[in-house]
Design brief:
- The complex is a heterodimer of chains A (about 400) and B (about 140).
- Chain A has one domain (about 5-115, about 225-404): Peroxisomal Thiolase, Chain A, domain 1, CATH 3.40.47.
- In chain A, about 30% of the residues lie in helices and about 15% in strands.
- Chain A contains 14 helices and twelve strands.
- In chain A, strands 1, 2, 3, 4, 5, 8, 9, 10, 11 and 12 form a ten-stranded mixed sheet that branches. In chain A, strands 6-7 form a two-stranded antiparallel ribbon.
- In chain A, helix 6 (about 180-195) crosses helix 11 (about 310-320).
- Chain A is globular.
- With about 140 residues, chain B is mainly beta.
- Chain B has one domain (about 20-145).
- Chain B contains one helix and eight strands, in the order H-E-E-E-E-E-E-E-E.
- Classes of the chains: A alpha+beta (about 400), B mainly beta (about 140).
- At the A-B interface, helix 5 and strand 6 of A face strand 4, strand 5, strand 6 and strand 8 of B.
Chain lengths: ~400, ~140
């Protein structure tokens, strides 16, 4: 039994996107409710129809959301483990629940207010570092996991420092250049400039890129994600029920999450991935299963919404999802293959985390739905199949293939 | 006092347990040790209860020469905390240790006394321990 083609995304909803801290005085709960109600309304459904939550990255507490909204009965409430790697995979989790008959109308969402939840802000805001302690204050009052002491004084204190290691290794092995990362940042900015919801709409040139301050070599300011506030929700239901709703169904062809066991925690304090996988996005095994389940290959994908917290990870996903051979992501992007509208595989047509907003992968789900409904701002002509990914980060990373 | 290129010790104690204490005891003596599987010889750092290669559960601590190779690195140029303003740029990297198989036994450490603009993957380095308390010595690496 597979979930292939048996469920569909029938509604998406979102708050406006805000720069970090600008969503106050709204609360994350309030934004979650706004996005969920908008997504249900988009589908022609209401809170009375909602009976499941399939989340990731501790997006919210379904107990609190269900009580606040007055959901009549919750029949499914589960999350993928770890962080942003589960964004695309949460659509698969929702689909699994529906195909198994555990729930009928399942929502997945992210609500983020980085004034109160700043990823990677450990060293800045005095929050606990990844895997270290968990008490108040940096390495606070008397609690550090024994394993954490092995990396605590390394100086790697933010996600960008971690992903720089993967990027440096990729450059070393394959001759990838900063100019290649620039192509990704600029391509996505060009897409964001046309999109009213985007937080960054001013032009970005190669000169701007090379004049930007370096944060952690080889990454400069424009290789880093934005920091944003906002919420995005997507509603999934069975393919049968989807056909009677307000919007054309966006069918879930396949969804997979996980990764090589030894990919493990991957970054932050780990870096023990096998040599063949180190300079990768960790998505290779997930991509293989995803294409097998869907019965399609990379040449069939019309638009790719690739999780882009850091520009080099877009490049490595292009390789791991088979859009170009391993190690050739640099030249592939430099040749214009990811540009909208004429590239071989337009990528992050919404601007992505780099230029639209960072809502931990859910903006990519929203854009995939808009592309397959044919209503995207940067519409890929005749788009029939979209790839959405979550991660790359700690296992599980995830991918979902959607079709109209 | 801040020293350029040297990320300040984040701990004054390794918060060790029985499994990790031998590493920190050796560090205080200026010796680099790792946990090695008695069955297959796979080296693990940090130590773990099971060998991922052979599922063995018996380990021994072995002394290494303390040299290794830079597997990857970053030069941190933007200070994330006010107290790092006088420390940046500093180099942090992943080190593969001589005498081990590499993956599964890599170290993540600050690489000091180097020119951040000329550090390269593949450079040889050796460990240096900075004793910051009676129980904790920070392992860092320096060009060989």
């Amino acid at each position: 039994m597979s979930i292939k083609d048996r469920t569909a995304i029938v509604g998406v909803g979102a708050t406006p996107y805000y720069n970090r801290g600008q969503s106050l005085p709204q609360t994350p709960l309030q934004m979650a409710c706004t996005a969920i109600r908008a997504a249900l309304d988009d589908a022609g459904l209401s809170v009375k129809d909602l009976d499941g939550f399939a989340i990731f990255a501790s997006a919210c507490d379904p107990a609190q959301v269900a009580a606040t909204l007055g959901v009549p009965e919750v029949r499914f409430a589960a999350s993928l483990t770890s962080g942003g790697g589960g964004s695309a995979g949460s659509i698969g989790l929702a689909s699994a629940a529906i195909v198994a008959g555990m729930a009928e109308v399942v929502v997945t969402l992210m609500t983020l207010q980085q004034a109160t939840r700043r990823l990677g802000g450990s060293a800045v805001g005095g929050q606990s570092l990844y895997g270290v302690g968990g008490r108040a204050g940096p390495y606070g009052a008397g609690g550090v996991a024994p394993e954490a002491a092995f990396s605590a004084s390394s100086g790697l204190i933010s996600p960008g420092h971690s992903f720089s290691q993967l990027a440096s290794r990729h450059m070393h092995l394959y001759g990838t250049k900063r100019e290649h990362f620039a192509h990704i940042a600029i391509t996505q900015r060009n897409n964001a400039m046309r999109r009213p919801s985007a937080l960054k709409r001013s032009p970005l040139t190669m000169e701007d890129y090379f004049n930007a301050r370096m944060i952690s070599d080889p990454l400069c300011l424009f290789d880093y994600t934005l920091e944003s506030d906002g919420a995005v929700a997507a509603v999934v239901t069975s393919a049968e029920r989807a056909r009677d709703l307000r919007q054309p169904p966006v069918y879930v062809m396949a969804s997979a999450h996980g990764g090589l066991g030894r990919w493990g925690p991957a970054i932050f304090s780990y870096f023990q991935q096998p040599d063949d996988y180190f300079a990768s996005s960790g998505h290779r095994p997930v991509a293989k299963r995803l294409y097998e389940m869907a019965g399609v290959g990379p040449a069939d994908v019309d638009v790719a919404l690739l999780y882009d917290h850091f520009s080099p990870m877009v490049l490595m996903q292009l390789e791991d999802y088979g859009f170009c051979p391993i190690g050739e992501g640099g030249p592939f992007v430099a040749e214009g293959n990811i540009a909208w509208p004429d590239g071989k595989i337009p990528v992050n047509t919404h601007g992505g985390h780099l230029s639209e907003a960072y809502i931990i992968g859910m903006t990519h789900v929203r854009e995939a739905v808009e592309q397959l409904r044919g209503v995207a701002v940067n519409q890929v002509a005749g788009a029939e199949i979209a790839l959405v990914t979550g991660g790359p980060a700690s296992l599980p990373v995830s991918g979902t293939l959607l079709r109209r | 006092m801040a020293i350029k290129g040297v990320f300040p010790a984040a701990l004054d104690d390794p918060y060790a347990n029985e499994a990790t204490q031998p590493f920190w005891d050796a560090a205080l003596r200026g010796v680099l040790t790792v946990s090695r599987c008695r069955t297959c010889g796979n080296c693990l750092l940090p130590p773990a209860p099971v060998c991922f290669q052979c599922q063995g559960e018996a380990f021994e601590w072995v002394e290494l020469p303390g040299t290794g190779t830079i597997y990857s690195f970053t030069v941190v140029r933007h200070p994330l905390r006010p107290d790092l303003a006088d420390v940046v740029p500093y180099v942090s990297g992943v080190i593969e240790l001589d005498g081990t198989q590499g993956a599964g036994c890599r170290m993540i450490a600050n690489i000091i006394e180097c020119d951040p603009d000329s550090v390269r993957i593949g450079d040889k380095v050796r460990v240096v321990f900075d004793r910051v308390s009676d129980t904790y010595a920070v392992p860092r690496f320096t060009p060989l």
